[in-house]
Amino acid sequence: MRLSITAAALALAAVSSTCISALPVPIQSRAPIPDVYNINVKNLYPEDTIFDKARNLFYQSNLWKGRISVWNVNDNSHFNLLIPGVSSDGNGEQQMAGLSINNAGDKLFAVAKNSAAFRFGPGQSQDGPDSFHRFNLPANANSAPAWSVSLNGVQSQFQQRTGRIPFGPVASAQDSQDNSYVVFALGIPAIAKVSPDGRTITPWFSEAANGSQRPGYTGVAYIPEDNVLVAFGGPRPLTAFDLNSPNPTAIPVRLSGANFGGLDGTEKLHAIRVNGKSNLFGTKAPNAYRFQSNDRWRSATVTSSTRDEFKSNSLTVVTEANFNGQQEIYGGGAYFGEGAHGGRTQFPLYRIYNLI
Q1: Mean pLDDT for each 10-residue chunk of the chain (356 residues)?
Q2: In sequence order, which residues have a C-beta less than 8 Å from that of residue 135 and are 6 or more positions away?
Q3: What pLDDT, on a 0 to 100 scale, did the predictor assign at position 324?
Q4: What is the pLDDT of residue 21?
């Protein structure tokens, strides 16, 4: 009898232990959602940042070094994706610009621009090397691009068609078929279309320049539920293209809500799903913007927010992140004035509290 009681006690203890270990962690014991999230990569200077929700990774474009930085939120590990002919010590012919992930989440795309394109003045180059690249996901430090293509040929086609050359490619977005749309910020507003295999590049759309220093689009995003492409900046805050049309044309998006103001200083644009619907998030330092539409991007309401840090970090991007399973929005900057070898070791992402 005593043996049975002892055995029963041990069994009860084992069950109790199992139950205790299976209990969820009390919410008060979870790590707080960071107000500032630091990415510790020396001389990173990211022009763009996107979050891979499936893998809990930040992909960031190392502007000066022409490479992609990959930061793991789970363990703070880091590696780089290198591109032959583009990646350098900071003094190469090309710099890394915009990044994007396709809708399936299995491909990463990167735009590289000529390093002299944005040297406004005598040293500026309109016809230096520009390129576009695709990586398959998941990737690791040994991964190479699945393909890489030059954009110079399609720039020449635009020039033959319009008399002006677009240059300074800065961003791309992918439609539901994995066609890519690459936008140019300088020369004229222009969009090149790249086939999923990278073999066909066409001068998809262009319009007249408005006479400003940066007349082209600075960001672009795809809205899958509407099959609409939206470009940011250049001739107007938002320009929509209805991909259901056999010949999409520019549709100026009517804005209401917060005053967007002038066009100078627009940067990246990303589509982020909030409550099951794609919203657009863009930047124009020191402000971050959220755009919402209920009519397939013929019109949109605007919400804006800022932080003191956005006055000095060269704000370029709004990205999402997930901490404790909760979606949050952060803003990041490239600190352009510090150059390729400024020595900065921390590149903070700052939480934006009132955009979602």
Answers
A1: 41 39 46 94 98 98 98 98 97 98 98 97 94 99 99 98 98 99 99 99 97 96 99 99 97 98 97 97 98 99 98 98 93 97 98 91
A2: 68, 81, 107, 108, 109, 110, 143, 145, 146
A3: 86
A4: 36
Nearest to 169 by CA among 158, 156, 160, 182: 182
Predicted local confidence at residue 31, as pLDDT: 77
How far is Cα 111 from Cα 135, in angstroms, rounded to an integer? 12
Q: Give the start-to-end residue ranges of the domains of the chain.
A: 33-351
Q: Are 232 and 217 in contact (CB under 8 A)?
A: yes
**Length reported for the chain:** 356
Report the C-alpha gap between 128 and 234 in whole angstroms. Answer: 21
Question: CA-CA distance, 308 to 287, in Å (whole number)?
Answer: 10
Alpha helices in the chain (DSSP H): 2-22, 152-162
Closest CA to 268 of 242, 297, 240, 288: 288
Cβ-count burial 259-290 (b if 16+ within 10 Å, e if not):
ebeebeebbbbbbbeeeeebbbbbbbbbbbbb
Q: Is 257 exposed, middle or buried (0-12, 13-18, 19+ CB in 10 A)?
A: middle
Q: Are 95 and 64 in contact (CB under 8 A)?
A: yes
Q: What CATH architecture does domain 33-351 belong to?
A: 6 Propeller (2.120)
Question: What pLDDT score was predicted for residue 262?
Answer: 96
Q: What is the pTM of this model?
A: 0.91
Query: Tokens in use for 77?
Result: 């590990």
